[in-house]
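In response to a reviewer's request, we include the raw inputs and outputs for one of the modeled complexes. The two entities were modeled together in a single run.
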Amino acid sequence: MTTAPVGSVLIVGAGLLGASIGLCLRNLGVETWLRDASPTAEAVGEDIGAGLSERAWVGQMPEPQLVVVATPPDVTVSLVVAALEEFPGAVVTDVASVKGAILRGLEATGADLTRYVGSHPMAGREKSGPVAARGELFTSMPWVLCSSEQTAPSARRLVKALAVELGATVTEMSADEHDTTVALISHLPQVMSSLLASRLQDTPLHHLALSGQGLRDTTRIAGSDPGLWVQILTANAASIVPALHGVQEDLQRLISTLEAPTAPGSRLDVAQLIAEGNAGQARIPGKHGGAPKAFAQLTVLVDDVPGTIAHLLTFIGEIGINLEDLRLDHSPGQPVGLAEVSVEPNRREELVEALTTNGWKVVQ
Amino acid sequence: MTTAPVGSVLIVGAGLLGASIGLCLRNLGVETWLRDASPTAEAVGEDIGAGLSERAWVGQMPEPQLVVVATPPDVTVSLVVAALEEFPGAVVTDVASVKGAILRGLEATGADLTRYVGSHPMAGREKSGPVAARGELFTSMPWVLCSSEQTAPSARRLVKALAVELGATVTEMSADEHDTTVALISHLPQVMSSLLASRLQDTPLHHLALSGQGLRDTTRIAGSDPGLWVQILTANAASIVPALHGVQEDLQRLISTLEAPTAPGSRLDVAQLIAEGNAGQARIPGKHGGAPKAFAQLTVLVDDVPGTIAHLLTFIGEIGINLEDLRLDHSPGQPVGLAEVSVEPNRREELVEALTTNGWKVVQ
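The model returned the following structure tokens for the whole complex.
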């Protein structure tokens, strides 16, 4: 991997992403400056150590080598253009989670895009603002780099160096390929989860009390922020709509089938939908980006008191078996937990044997 | 709770659910017999200790007090009717996951339904057959009991006693109320997950490599068995179709909005969909069937080696903080894990402080 060292950086927008980038760069000893439309956010950013406030140190900021525009997407284009004009020697990147609309907006301005590279750091958290910033927000997370045909190789290398220094895993693709990808792997799951969860608005609570892990898993991301998702979904509408049409066709076919469930072929139609879901689900890569891989599960009954899960995992670790995943299942109405442990399939039998021999209750 | 003791039981169908019920009853000292259309399944059921094979002990089975029909739903009605006729003193229950169609099928036969009670034990696992049976399959899981207007109180009490002795948490409702409930909390999530995952069938693997926990969560149940779900979805079509129409209307509204994303009001429409999802998701009860409750999350960077998670949880337990949930996040391309720990909100700050002081890397 060829990367150039990152020199001085100006971060425009001291929110969660901007301040997190600043925190990390400061820890690495990079000269970092902050600019925000809100004087308060800019000052808080300096206070938490995310960079120097441009307002507080008037006239002292050198021309930056790199400008990171980390603002809401609806002002990204104008701020990227402004940065390219203000700092004729600087490379400029942005962190918006939709890239095609930004690139087309920039091209329409006639700006010099040899010094622009789009970024999408695929990291975040449920809170926003500089106070929520964390220097390790990007550690091990994907960072998509979208160069365009105009982008100079040196600009691409500099932004790639930024992502690498922040600890992210870099993937490069065009802006349109990026938008098609996130439409399917991120935006469509959000829409489906919201559509599902919105059906529960009038469901009696004693019915919802029977909910299992399936409902909890499929609706978890339905708790996301409407303000953020309005910007994402409208900005990437062109890539999302074809996927939604596909869902709509499958859904219409399923409804027609279930409205005449005893008609010839109806069982085959339903089985096909579920089988197609099997096929799609099986293609999602496993842990650490490896090939899709099925782990073996076993479920252990655990008391819901501090330390019980730790004892269980200590025991598993002592046998030398690596825990691939762990889920705590929720038991309606009982102070007892079910821990679903995932391990390499060829270690499952050994683990069940060892757990049972040592007094653990293996349920499944 | 008024329950009657369970005497001798005949289980018809030695699959996962039947054999699991048998294993548990035998552990409790209840006389249990097995009957299966497959001589092999019946014999395997006896071998694993789930009950005595009726074929192996010809003429020795006494008239059972309770018959549990644990077969695929498409033969449940005829086997319940046969059991009511063969054993005029016995109470009969079934375990099909859809109850209205079964009840209407039984009523159409004119059978004596004073001795019939429908059951839906909401437990299962990814494997099937008697070998997959576990005596503790029902521990702490919901068991819905569906009496009808014809059901005698003594029959209801006996089946309730069965569920209680198996360790399940009993909820009582009518067959139609049950079917409406599971349509929303179980069948609709399955359909939405399958519809979403089926969109991934042609997605390039290097795009899917960018998948995060959101996609993994929303598609996990899309891996379910088509054969089983054909029976469930077609049997409960009447309750599922109205929910699917609701999804279809919301989806159509979203598509129209996103096809003209700059039209007046479009941002409001999208925000409303996400907000409605927020509202529905917030109504799903939390752990142990309590009121919906938001836990505070923090994410800790952990090495992916045996014992690391155990050390982390031991440390948390030693501070006296109860672990409410734990998720291991998958880091594409790196042998490092992110453990998302959920705790009571008022303990989060203390825990972050303690972890950081002791050398753990708290990422978020």
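As requested, we also summarize the result in words. Residues 287-291 of chain A have pLDDT under 50 and may be disordered. DSSP finds 13 helices and twelve strands in chain A.
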